[in-house]
Amino acid sequence: MAKPKANPPLTSDAEPVETPPVYTVVARRYRPQQFSDLIGQEHIATALMNALTTGRIAQAYLFTGARGVGKTSSARILAKALNCVKGPTPTPCDQCEICLSIMGGDDTDAIEIDGASNNGVDAARELRQNVGFRPARSRFKIYIIDEVHMLSTGAFNALLKTIEEPPPHVKFILATTEIQKIPITILSRCQRFDFNTVGPGKIFETLKHIVKKEGLKADDDALQIVARRANGSMRDSQTLLDQLLGVCEGELTLAKVHSLLGTASDDRVLNLSEAILAGDAKQSLALVGEAAERGLQLGELLDQLIDYWRGLMLAAVGGEEIDPMLGSTALRERIAKQATGKSLDTILAGLDVLSTAKGRMKHTTSPLVLMEIAVVRLSRLEELLPVAELTQWLQSGVKSGLVANRSASAVALPEGAKKKPAAVAEARANGSVVANGEITEKSWPGKWEQILGELGGVLSENLRRLPRMPAIIGPNVLVIHYPPAYTALSERGIEQIRSALQKLNGKDWKIVFETIAEAPEPPRNLGTVATTGPQSKRQEMLNLPFFKSLSDVLGAQLLRTEDGFDPTATPISVLPAAVVAVDDPDDPIPQPPLDAEEI
């Protein structure tokens, strides 16, 4: 076999190979070097500086907080402050050899240990043996143990005595993101400092400063998205900014950020929110499906919806003063306008739905399904009835139904209609339908069918099953009759009816409710109600105040009783044996019976 040819020796004429410059990432180049540089941790910087000034320096410190908020940076600054040639000082010089070596992470007397990879008892014993040696050139030998919660129980136990009573020349600085995993025996031996997450406003200002120092350009809206996405971590925001600046040519714009991060534009979020707030579940699902088809990150879209609903909450509570970090000026103006038409309880319920979906999305393989469920629930929020309202009605005995806690401007209360029976009777004496523009007694049935056809869906079906057709009792005044056992319609249903009426003659209408003595239709699909107990027991239970309230306020019906059930002997709060059916406040049609397990 032929021997391979040896490489020719380099001669003096050979050109040296140029080594490409080593790039240092933004998060390292702009790392805080003084206590005054710490962003969002001013309380910790002040405490440490005062301790250095007064000489009250502890033997062990524990820094805890979320990732990327400055724990390790603070540990290095404290190490420089203790070992600087001008120290101990709250303002290290950053010029001496000791400060420069600590900044580079290679100082022989400031030893940084990764707790995740040195978590055994042997590593702890080795550390305990080394603390006896004095520092090579510095004032103190400083051990910085990062991710200290990763140490084993045996390693913690091996360090207990050393951390409590180290030699005078040794200081410990422990850092962790999971304080709950630190044994209480270690916590009691350290001075604990809790680092806050950094606010998006402070992150935004820091990013603007970095972009300016780098000689680059970036839109404020683009930097705001980066600041919000960092979730309080300064390092995460700087890493993300470094990535965006590296892949974007020229100016960093909002469109480029949306494209690279897979987030939705403000217009897309606005359109989806408007469809949800309008109760259009079909359009909401279509917009979510379109976002998924375009490859947008559904988790990011959900975060954007949470931010949007947070803006609605802030606007509903504090007027038009909305957090400027929520988005562009135009977006904040739309949020303020939309918040005026929604109650605070509805907005808070929407936030609960979105937050629950966000928590569940981390543990599912079908994020699209969870997203669709969330937007449909948001679209139907106003159709739901809070349990608190039901409880309040039962306790107070209010019989005015859903309008009990609604604003008077949205709907005329049934009590208001009852206060003027003479006026209603007089109007009907002149004619059951009063002439109103093009609407006459003869044309009203056709007009009402036209309105029902426009409304459609469940609302139209509910109105068709009313015992009487609604009648016009005055100029632009419509009276709707309903049985005493039923509640009035929701605000949303009233507004839909009023809008349909307005299209008839272009005028605003007033809707009045009036109860009638006629019995409601028999329940659908209920069949024969079975009772297994004596009729006297059944009647006795129906006469109980609790069941009378259920029947009067919610239109509940007694479906069955179990053998041996005695309503007078058992406290009403623990009655599991009676099954009742409660009508939907927005649906004057009795609902099918509930299963016993649902009660």
Can you describe what's shown?
The chain has 25 helices and 10 strands. Residues 397-436, 519-534 and 570-599 have low confidence and may be disordered. The protein folds into 5 domains: 26-194, P-loop containing nucleotide triphosphate hydrolases (Rossmann fold), CATH 3.40.50.300; 200-261, Helicase, Ruva Protein, domain 3 (Orthogonal Bundle); 266-383, Zinc Finger, Delta Prime, domain 3; 399-515, GMP Synthetase, Chain A, domain 3, CATH 3.30.300; 535-598, no CATH class. It has helices spanning 26-29, 42-54, 71-83, 97-104, 121-130, 153-164, 184-187, 200-213, 220-229, 234-247, 254-261, 266-277, 281-293, 298-318, 329-339, 344-361, 367-379, 387-396, 414-418, 421-429, 444-455, 457-464, 491-505, 535-542, 545-554; strands spanning 60-64, 110-114, 141-146, 170-176, 191-194, 471-474, 477-482, 510-515, 557-561, 578-581. The protein is an alpha/beta fold and 599 residues long. α12 (266-277) packs antiparallel against α13, α13 (281-293) packs antiparallel against α17 and α14 (298-318) runs antiparallel to α16.
